[in-house]
Specification:
Length: 395
Amino acid sequence: MSFIINEKVTWVGKIDWELRNFHGFEYSVDKGSSYNSYLVRDEKTVLIDTVWEPYAEEFIKNLKKEIDLNEIDYIIANHAEIDHSGALPALMREIPDTPIYCTANGVKSLKGHFHENWNFVTVKTGDTLSIGENDLVFIEARMLHWPDSMFTYMTNDNILFSNDAFGQHYASEYMYNDLVDPGELYSEAIKYYANILNPFSPLVERKIDEVLKLEVPVDMICTSHGIIWREDPLQIVEQYRTWANAYQENQITLIYDTMWEGTRRMAEAIAQGIKDVDRGVNIKLYNMSKTDKNDVMTEVFKSKAVLLGSPTINGSILTSMAATVDLMRGLKFKNKKAAAFGTYGWSGESVKVLTEHLDKAGFEIVADGIREMWNPDEAALDRCREYGRNFVKSL
Ligand code: FEO
């Protein structure tokens, strides 16, 4: 499959409807994804990025329907990660001398992955490759989200090839933002931002400002995953700026795991207390052993405050919550308040352990945690309701 984007640009990637996990099993994919590769035909012919290795053979076969591979003058590797570079070895076996334009860090990553001494041409921000009527201008996007990441801007047609930035793991046969369900698109775009780009938010803001200062027109943003932004393409840039700036909504999220339902009942009572005081706030509860971790991280990203709960086990917390706090630390959420809760039988360390993790992860601890012994009775649940009321008042 391929499709024409405009007179000069053709999409030659792969829509992967079957994908359910990405980055190993670190990122859940509900709606498939795509690996977007673009063929630019001007006086010179350029291929921008490839696809994930399992689809390399299919990619080359389809590309050959579009063009004699020997007519490709330049390859641009905006990003060396395997989902975009995986078909390079197969392609380079066919056209071994073709120059590959990428950043210096891109060379390191590509050599690290494939151990090949291809004809690399290193580029940096502002370097330009003239291909005929259009020029391709390179813009390094270091740590968005790898050291090698880069954008390529095509003049005249005003297309920004942004690679991972502004993308989504979202398969569609239609491939344009104006042709897909906007709610689905938004939820996949925010999940992608929260789980992949959020740790680099300060750099996102700076890069957006840098690109906007260039004052170049952008008629289309061709990402490397999911749909192409062609209707009001800068809407996703503005959205990224909002997300990058310590984003929060009026939401409190309670995230817990439970052994014999005591910590769950505490969570529900705390939620009731919050609701007693604030009917406007969105309150969400998630049992981590039953919920997708990336969906929960998206909810943390949207929250102004979180409450983490675990019973005490072996002097610590349940393993699902241990994984959760580590994920929350790594994603570097900003501008969020927090506290902890949990049941215990004797030693009762879980609340202290959770609170310490939250503090180290950069959350502002606004209240001492609450712990209840054994199975919470009505008096204990009343204390939890009161705790919820006080918690929301402290925000
Ligand atoms: Fe889609 Fe960072 O690779």
